Every structure is written in structure tokens, then in C-alpha cells.
């Protein structure tokens, strides 16, 4: 029989007689979206995602069930078809309920695939766990120790007991590698012979260097200090982050072929003009290392240090003859770290004063608890208003504060209580109320700086007004946690790679993500297959032992403890998240989940060979039609059945702790 001739999207196409429009388009390399179609089925479905228009007949028909005929003129994409598909997809999505990604990985700024790396630890494969972590976090030993763990705040396990110790498990995988004589190095792509200069060896700079090198580019990191790490090395005390861990993880980058130039200050030793002669792109990752001022009388006098200055002096080996009574002003991690450090230096007393309540402190709550257990005192709703030297002591005038009207962040602004002034005596006052950006690097590069000295860069791509210069991390966002600086470094690496390839520098669209909602909205049915299990404690030395020096407080999980904690994971991530037709279609159509509050999870129903999560089912009918078509005397092919599901509703039964 002669082939059928037709036109699809303006292109002549030949098709076998009796074939469907979907098959004819596929043979011509034209993709028509489908959801309920399965090529092994004789029967077709009715999701209407594969709808096309037969021109001249004003007919909109499904491509999967419509046969070709001679002379057909077909369009597979136009505004009307897009609108109809979007309408059909919104109806289908409204039937679907579940977490595409675990709430933990959605809340991780770096987007770490937390459920999969935890699953690897649970089965005893720490190497695979490390591989998964490094896809988004190249410094897992460091971040596993210092990250405030926003992921744990969103862990659905909190609906029944306590969140999984995600950071401790990340640290475990990294420490396993640190103990190996030969480390697991990431795969580096073939050389592109492109060169990138990175200014700053903090979390953003190191991360950008790592991923750019993985892409095959040559990378040179310029750092003003004698060693890499930035605030991770000079602003975090050794009892939280040993210097050896930083050295080991930086050595991985060096072994990958990244070059480090230490003792080199941008704008003084190297300039953007000189770098332009040798490099194809420049990434500014200076950080925010200038201490914020308290703006009170006497703060520039002797005996008064900023938190980051104090921590830097201790980190570089400065000895303090006497510490005496120490007062720390601030409520962030730097304030708490400074207080705990002062206690280890033998201070007679250490007091943190903070203008808001303990619950409002931005510091990691665990670190605050640790400080209090080590004897640090906390005075809430107190702020310094002046300081002066008298009789060899610092006389700090402070005032009581009370919550006032909400500020721009929504928090109640603290206001002084009239007549509540009182005096504190101290040998040292440490001001730790925040860090600011030194705008000099931006000025030296010729790029615009904005509010707070932040470098002006496209927030999506981190490209500046000068196309070959990119900027990211704290110098763009303002002082923030390391994991967000790390995400900025990875984002910059992707943008720089596009720039070097001559492609448009743009940020990829966010993938569609279905979600049950917040922890409070978690359907109770999800917990039916899990049992309560206490959070596995991370071994730590006693508070009394800690104050004898700067030994690391936590020794980390053993293999047995790590596996025990990993088994507590509820495996919220959908098993089909990376291979879900519904998710791909919703992403392409920019469809948003329309949560109605009517869905409730039914949990995993298991028949031994296969499990079903009914709330994820969109009634596409593929499984029913396959069962009807198979009618095999040997039984149903459950593996094929699960593989055919376009939404992950069918799978092998999963079990939780």
C-alpha cells in the first residue's frame, strides 16, 4: 500500500496507512505531548493532552486515536491548542495529590536530593550518598557541621516525633570519605580551554570553582588570606568546624585541577583590567566581612572588638593574656560563636545581651542551647546605648527593650523602655550585630553597587552589567548563611558556562512541584505505615570537657548510628519525580498546583507485588487497560505495570521506620 501524505506543522510527512497522527508525527521527529498513551496498548485513553487541530475542518481531535488520511493538514501547536491543553492539564492536576519532592529538599537552598542520599546511607552505601550530595553541595563535610538546617525545619517527620538529622547524615557521608587514603573525586569533563577567575575562596567562590571545573573549564581562585575558606575558616570556631576538615575539602578542589593564588587582594594585587587579558570570565565572591557598627558613643575605644575580628584573631592563633568578664552584643551565630569561644579562653563570665527574645534570635537554636549548657548567660530584651572605659573596666550602659510595632520584616521592632537604663561591667565588649559588604571590589571592577554596598547582578543569572563579570554570595544577597552562598556559586557556574558557550544567559524554569502543603497540612494517613522512633543522638563531649580547649564538640555518627537514623526517613520524595510525565507536562505548560483542600492521602496500599498511592492517581487508565489486555495465564507483569504509570502512583511497596 502506498504511504499516506500529509502536512504537519508545515512540513510534508509520509505515514503508513492506518497509523495514528501521533505515530506519524513521532516518525517525523515531531513530539506531541501525551499522558494516558502507552505504545503497548491497543486501546487508547482520553486525557486530551495529545489534542491537535486538523486545519480546514475546524476539528480538534486526539492524535493517539485519530488515523491519518491523505491530504491532512495538521497543527500540533498554536495558542488555541496550548489553552486547551492547559485547561485539560489543570483538571488532571486537580485530581493529583502528593509531594513531588520532599519538603526537606524543597527548603534546601542548594536543592540537595536529601531523600536519595539518606536512602544510600540506609543501605550502607556512603560513597553513593557522597556522590548524590556533591551534585548540589561540594563541601559536605563543612556544611554538615555548620548549616542551620532549614531542611530539618520542614521535615514531615515532625508530624509524629522529631525531624531526621539530615545535616549529621550529610557530615557522616563526607567524613567517611575524609578518612579514606584515596578520596572519591568528582568526574571532570574534557578541557574546554576556557579560563575563569574567581575572587574569594569562601563558600560561593569555592562552589563556583568546583562546578566550573567539573564542566571542564580552567579555574583560578584569588584569595587575600593565606588559606581558603573565607568566613568558614576565620569566622567559625574550631570546636564547630576543625581546620583539618576545611583543608581536606579544599584539597579535593586542588586535586581536580583548580589553581589557588593566596595573599592576593583584588583591586590591589590584581585588577579586572589585567584579568581580562588572561581570563574569559570573572566571578566576584567577596563576601560580607566588614563588621556592622552599633552606632553608640564609645564603641571605637579600647577593649571593644567586633565578633568577626575576635573570631579571626583566635582562628589565627592570637593569645589573650586575660579575658575576664565578657559581654557580647547580638543574637546571631557570630555572637553565639564569640561567646562560646570566650568561655573556652577562660573568661570569668560570658553574657550575651540581645534586644529581642531568645525565640527571636537568628542564631541556630542548637548552638544557643549549647552555649547555655556551657555556662554562657543570656539577657533578653537588652541593648547597649553607650560604653566608656573607667578604672580599667568597660562600663556599658544598657537599656531594657520591649516589642513595638512590626518592622518591614513583620517582626515587632524592639523599642527602649523609658527609665530602664542600667550598667554592666566588662573587660571586653564584643559587638556582633552583623556584617556588611565592602563596596571597594565592585568599584574596582566597574560594576554598580546598590543598597548596603551590594553588587548589582541579575538575581536569576548573577550576571552584572558588564557581561563577562558575574557576582554572587553575600556581596549580592547581603550577609547570609553558607548554604545560600553555596547556591549562589552553583547558579553563577551555570550562567558562566552558558556565557562561555555563547548561549543566552538565562535561568531554567522551575519544575512543577505538587505538595501536600506545610507540616501542619500533612494528611495523617501518611503516618499510618510508619512507627515512632527517637531521633538518634549525635555523640558529643560533655560541657565540662568542652571548656578545656577547642576540641570538636561532636564526633559524628558511626556507621551503625547513621544507618539507624537514616531509616527514620519517611521517603516523602515521589519515586517518579525525575521521570514523571505529569510533572514534565505541568512544567512545560507552566501549570500551578491548585490546592483545594479536598484531597486526603490514602497512603500506600500494597498487594505484596505492587504498591499503590491512590492520591497520586489521575485515572489515566493505563494500568487497567494493560491488565485487561494482558490476560496472561502466568499472571500480571507487575514490573511492567509499575513502569507504565505516568505519575508514580504504582511502585514497589515502600516501608518507613
Please write out the topology.
Elements: E1 4-8, E2 11-15, H1 21-27, E3 51-54, E4 59-62, E5 73-75, H2 79-93, H3 103-107, H4 114-122, H5 126-134, H6 140-146, H7 150-153, H8 166-178, E6 195-199, H9 203-214, E7 218-223, H10 231-234, H11 243-255, E8 259-262, H12 272-278, E9 281-284, E10 290-291, E11 304-306, H13 307-315, E12 325-329, H14 333-344, E13 349-353, H15 365-373, E14 377-379, E15 382-390, E16 393-406, E17 412-416, E18 422-426, E19 428-431, E20 435-436, H16 440-445, E21 469-471, H17 474-477, H18 482-500, H19 543-546, H20 559-566, H21 581-588, E22 604-606, E23 611-613, H22 622-630, H23 638-644, E24 650-651
Parallel strand pairs: 1-5, 6-7, 6-9, 7-8, 9-21, 11-19, 12-13, 12-19, 13-14
Antiparallel strand pairs: 1-2, 3-4, 3-5, 10-20, 15-16, 16-17, 16-18, 22-23, 23-24
Estimated structural class = alpha/beta
Main β sheet profile: 5 strands, mixed
Q: What is the distance, rounded to the nearest whole angstrom, between the alpha carbons of the first and last residues?
A: 61 Å
User: Nearest-angstrom radius of gyration?
Assistant: 29 Å
Strands, count: 24
Name the CATH class of the largest domain: Alpha Beta
Strand sequence of the main sheet, in spatial order?
2-1-5-3-4
Number of H- or I-type helical stretches: 23
Q: What share of residues are in beta strands?
A: 15-25%
Choose one word for the global shape. Answer: elongated
Amino acid at each position: 500500500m502506498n504511504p499516506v501524505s500529509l502536512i504537519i506543522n508545515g512540513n510534508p510527512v509520509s505515514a503508513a496507512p492506518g497509523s495514528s497522527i501521533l505515530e506519524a508525527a513521532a516518525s517525523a521527529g515531531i513530539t506531541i505531548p501525551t499522558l494516558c498513551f502507552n505504545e503497548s496498548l491497543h486501546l487508547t485513553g482520553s486525557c486530551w493532552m495529545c489534542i491537535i487541530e486538523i486545519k480546514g475542518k475546524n476539528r480538534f481531535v486526539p492524535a493517539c486515536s485519530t488515523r491519518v488520511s491523505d491530504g491532512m493538514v495538521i497543527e500540533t501547536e498554536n495558542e488555541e491548542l496550548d489553552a486547551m491543553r492547559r485547561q485539560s492539564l489543570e483538571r488532571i492536576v486537580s485530581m493529583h495529590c502528593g509531594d513531588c519532592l520532599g519538603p526537606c529538599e524543597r527548603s534546601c537552598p542548594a536543592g540537595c536530593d536529601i531523600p536519595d542520599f539518606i536512602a544510600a546511607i540506609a543501605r550502607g552505601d556512603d560513597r553513593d550518598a557522597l556522590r548524590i550530595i556533591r551534585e548540589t553541595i561540594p563541601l559536605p563535610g563543612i556544611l554538615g557541621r555548620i548549616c542551620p538546617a532549614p531542611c530539618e525545619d520542614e521535615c514531615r517527620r515532625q508530624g509524629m516525633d522529631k525531624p531526621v538529622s539530615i545535616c549529621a547524615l550529610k557530615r557522616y557521608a563526607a567524613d567517611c570519605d575524609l578518612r579514606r587514603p584515596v578520596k572519591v573525586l568528582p568526574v571532570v569533563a574534557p578541557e574546554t580551554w576556557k579560563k575563569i577567575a574567581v575572587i574569594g575562596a569562601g563558600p560561593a567562590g569555592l562552589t563556583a570553582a568546583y562546578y566550573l571545573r567539573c564542566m571542564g573549564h580552567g579555574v583560578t581562585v584569588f584569595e587575600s588570606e593565606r588559606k581558603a575558606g573565607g568566613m568558614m575558616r576565620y569566622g567559625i570556631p574550631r570546636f564547630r568546624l576543625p581546620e583539618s576538615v576545611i583543608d581536606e575539602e579544599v584539597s579535593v578542589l586542588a586535586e581536580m585541577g583548580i589553581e589557588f593564588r593566596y595573599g592576593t587582594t583584588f583591586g590591589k594585587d590584581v585588577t579586572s583590567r589585567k584579568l581580562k587579558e588572561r581570563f574569559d570570565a570573572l566571578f566576584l565572591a567577596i563576601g560580607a566581612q566588614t563588621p556592622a557598627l552599633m552606632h553608640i558613643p564609645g564603641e571605637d575605644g579600647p577593649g571593644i572588638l567586633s565578633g568577626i575580628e575576635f573570631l579571626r584573631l583566635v582562628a589565627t592563633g592570637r593569645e589573650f593574656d586575660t579575658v575576664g568578664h565578657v559581654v557580647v552584643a547580638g543574637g546571631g551565630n557570630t555572637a553565639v560563636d564569640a561567646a562560646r569561644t570566650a568561655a573556652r579562653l577562660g573568661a570569668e563570665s560570658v553574657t550575651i545581651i540581645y534586644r529581642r527574645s531568645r525565640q527571636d534570635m537568628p542564631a541556630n537554636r542548637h548552638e544557643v542551647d549549647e552555649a547555655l549548657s556551657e555556662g554562657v548567660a543570656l539577657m533578653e530584651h537588652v541593648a547597649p546605648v553607650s560604653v566608656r572605659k573607667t578604672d580599667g573596666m568597660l562600663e556599658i550602659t544598657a537599656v531594657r527593650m520591649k516589642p513595638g510595632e512590626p518592622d518591614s520584616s513583620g517582626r515587632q521592632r524592639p523599642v527602649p523602655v523609658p527609665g530602664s537604663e542600667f550598667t554592666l561591667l566588662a573587660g571586653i565588649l564584643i559587638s556582633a550585630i552583623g556584617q556588611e559588604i565592602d563596596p571597594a571590589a565592585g568599584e574596582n571592577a566597574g560594576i554598580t553597587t546598590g543598597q548596603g554596598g551590594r553588587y548589582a547582578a541579575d538575581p536569576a543569572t548573577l550576571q552584572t552589567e558588564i557581561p563577562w563579570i558575574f557576582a554572587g554570595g553575600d556581596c549580592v544577597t547581603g550577609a547570609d548563611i553558607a548554604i545560600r552562598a553555596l547556591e549562589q556559586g552553583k547558579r553563577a557556574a551555570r550562567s558562566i558556562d552558558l556565557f562561555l558557550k555563547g548561549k543566552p544567559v538565562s535561568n531554567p524554569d522551575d519544575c512543577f512541584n505538587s505538595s501536600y502543603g506545610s507540616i501542619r497540612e500533612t494528611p495523617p494517613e501518611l503516618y499510618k505505615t510508619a512507627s515512632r522512633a527517637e531521633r538518634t543522638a549525635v555523640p558529643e563531649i560533655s560541657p565540662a570537657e568542652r571548656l578545656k580547649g577547642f576540641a570538636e564538640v561532636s564526633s559524628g555518627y558511626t556507621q551503625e548510628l547513621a544507618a539507624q537514623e537514616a531509616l527514620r526517613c519517611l521517603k516523602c520524595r515521589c519515586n517518579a519525580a525525575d521521570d514523571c510525565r505529569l510533572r514534565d507536562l505541568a512544567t512545560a505548560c507552566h501549570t500551578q498546583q491548585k490546592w483545594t483542600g479536598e484531597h486526603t492521602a490514602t497512603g500506600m496500599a500494597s498487594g505484596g507485588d505492587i504498591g499503590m498511592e491512590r492520591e497520586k492517581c489521575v485515572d489515566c487508565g493505563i494500568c487497567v487497560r494493560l491488565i485487561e489486555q494482558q490476560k496472561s495465564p502466568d499472571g500480571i507483569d507487575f514490573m511492567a505495570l509499575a513502569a507504565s504509570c505516568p505519575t508514580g502512583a504504582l511502585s514497589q511497596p515502600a516501608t518507613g521506620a
